[in-house]
């Protein structure tokens, strides 16, 4: 007789009981694996469901749930742009915009430890003077302390290599 194998799904908790810490509380709100990427995409101008879904490659039902959660937490605001059928755009609230320094710090950390040999795939530049933004949100050219509205994302020196690495090789196509 063969042993029985039972399939089960491990549900990860989304809370951290007993952790008297603002980091744990923050992770309860934005620690889900897609949340910060959704915020990043909206910061970069992808405000419509289809744009976000295409950019991230996330399942529609998962994206719908994450967007609703971010709206419920007052990180995003949903605004109608079409009535029939109903369509919405998503905008960051002040609470959402306040995540920008954390995103910049995480991006620079990833660039420091994960960027390929060509460099980081994306750069953040000061809109006013064009200087690169440091991991502390300071323009490296003019020294101004910036916020999300003062900066823009552009392809970095590692962009082409990163894009090439994600495309299928000709022999691998269907």
> What would CATH call the homologous superfamily of the largest domain?
Winged helix-like DNA-binding domain superfamily/Winged helix DNA-binding domain
Question: What sequence of helices (H) and strands (E) makes up the elements?
Answer: HHHHEEHHEEH
Can you give the helix content as a percent range?
A: 25-40%
* Lateral strand order in the biggest sheet: 1-2
Helical/strand content category: alpha+beta
Number of helices: 7
Label the overall shape. globular
Quick recap of the structure?
The protein contains seven helices and four strands, in the order H-H-H-H-E-E-H-H-E-E-H.
Structure description:
- The protein has 174 residues and is of the alpha+beta class.
- It folds into 2 domains: 22-96, Winged helix-like DNA-binding domain superfamily/Winged helix DNA-binding domain (Arc Repressor Mutant, subunit A), CATH 1.10.10; 99-166, no CATH class.
- The protein is 38% helix and 13% strand.
- The strands form 2 sheets. A two-stranded antiparallel sheet has the order 1-2.
- Strand 1 and strand 2 (87-92) form a beta hairpin.
- The longest helix is centred in the middle third of the chain and has 15 residues, at 100-114.
- The radius of gyration is 19 Å and the shape is globular.
Write the layout of secondary structure elements.
Blueprint: H1 22-30, H2 35-43, H3 49-56, H4 60-72, E1 76-82, E2 87-92, H5 94-97, H6 100-114, E3 122-126, E4 151-155, H7 159-166
Antiparallel strand pairs: 1-2, 3-4
